[in-house]
Amino acid sequence: MEKSIRRWGVLFALPALICFAIAFLVPFVWGLVLSFCRFTAITDVSFTGLDNYVRAFTVDNYFIHSFFFTLLFTVVSVAGINLLAFTLSLVLTGSVPGKNAFRTIIFMPNLIGGIVLGWIWNVIINGFLARYELNIMSDPSFGFWGLVVLMLWQNTGYMMVIYIAAIQNVSTDMLEAASIDGASYTTKLFRIIIPTVMPSITICLFLTLTNGFKLYDQNLALTAGNPNHQTEMLAMNIFNTFYSRVGFEGVGQAKAVIFTILVGMIALGQLAATRRKEVEN
Amino acid sequence: MTVSRRYPRWIAFASMIIISAIVIFPIAVVVMNSFKSRLFISSAPFALPDSDTFIGFENYTTGLARTGFFSAFGYSLWITVASVAMIILLTSMLAWYITRVHGTLTSLIYYALAFSMIVPFQMVMFPMSKIANMLGIDNPVGIIILYVGFGAGIASFMFAGFVKSIPIALEEACMIDGANPPQTFFLVVFPMLKSTAVTVAILQTMWVWNDYLMPYLVIGTEYRTIPVAIQYLRGGYGAVDMGAMMAMLFLAMLPVIIFYLICQRYIINGVLAGAVKG
Known about the structure:
The complex is a heterodimer of chains A (281) and B (278). With 281 residues, chain A is mainly alpha-helical. Chain A has helices at residues 2-7, 9-12, 14-34, 51-58, 62-92, 99-107, 114-130, 140-168, 172-180, 185-213, 217-222, 234-243, 249-280; strands spanning 37-38, 46-47. In chain A, helix 5 runs antiparallel to helix 10 (185-213). Chain B is mainly alpha-helical. Chain B folds into two domains: 9-62, no CATH class; 68-232, MetI-like (MetI-like fold, Orthogonal Bundle), CATH 1.10.3720.10. Chain B has helices spanning 9-33, 38-41, 58-67, 69-100, 104-118, 121-135, 143-165, 168-176, 181-192, 194-210, 213-218, 226-232, 242-262, 264-277. The radius of gyration of chain B is 24 Å and the shape is globular. Classes of the chains: A mainly alpha (281), B mainly alpha (278).
């Protein structure tokens, strides 16, 4: 059978592979090469070695700043989203009237696109700040906390849905047995529920981590990096390096390679965490 | 299942009501302000429209004219539907092929697809938009090729995961009866992939519909999708007509919310399956 399928490879595999090559493989390899070159158009490319990588850090300090801004934002939002989502999922797996309606409402913001979300919160945050005659551009910390609140609003429902599904799979027998033995709620939470849903916690932590790290649309619509690049996240810093200064395309590409390595490290961490669990089980 | 109840039921209920109100609040603010004159949006965004501030549908008419919202809706709809349909068709075929045919080449393809899921868009955006330009696919039709290529990673991963669980004997029986591989795939395998196809469709729809950077970089502002049209309202100088913005934000959210309320079960299950397998 395998042989006859193989003969039809052109029909089955080629169309998708051509698209994959155009959209991903060729641009990826080309991007890697370009990160070692100086260029403005595709026709005048000259090899410059690691020059772009050095310039990524030395030409201004916005790249490093955006790295720490992104890191801090990601840590705060990952912790916030997961704590809130887990708490909500505990409540909504209990006996609350109308829990399906609540689940539906809390999940909803997840479907709204990043650009729309960013502008919604832009209005709301500016509305609060207007009372003190300030706006979101007045201080970088407004943009930072604005992004955190936005991210909480968008992602909590998503993670909550994952946690709810996991908690519903916790064995009722085990919980009942624990209750009969006189275990308190806290004991059951930390000894039974959390260990059972650990794989979902891993998934949610890494999902929120990568979402936070790669954030762009929300950042663009909410603050566009203002004031003075202070609320610029990594993805936006890379975009601006490419497109708002002529002659910096190579530096932008070098930054993109560094960004890819950082995101890749998160993914490897996830792989390691999941593998370890599998071995333990 | 009830874990335990250490707090009275009404406390849980009341706090859920408050949280739901917080979730809905931003959307309510947008709807409210879309009927107010733009002069009052920045000074008193949380006040209900009154006789001084209410301007009817003026923001909507200005916004529609400025963004070309209806054509943006059309482009978004076309690009999303066509891309998602092509992703499902082409990647399910690819996934079946690489799962059933064993060899170095097919496992290389598999790893390349898995790798593409990790790589952020910023890594490829510059060369990709240049290539799209060179090949003449920088338009609302050609961009579908790019969506298929960039969405192929997660989609074929999920399809391949499911194909592995289908007993191969079924396909063998089919071929022994004289069916060729296309017949076997389209008449026997593809119908079984339906539930995975729904999951893939939901995940990819959410991505393509809301995507901003790819259409912005590849097509530009000539044929604007909804996210590009919204961001386009910002204009060159940073001065934004917030009235028109509110009206357009509401129009952009409306189809998403309606779609969600109609197929919420599929959406939530699709997202769940996507998170666990992805």
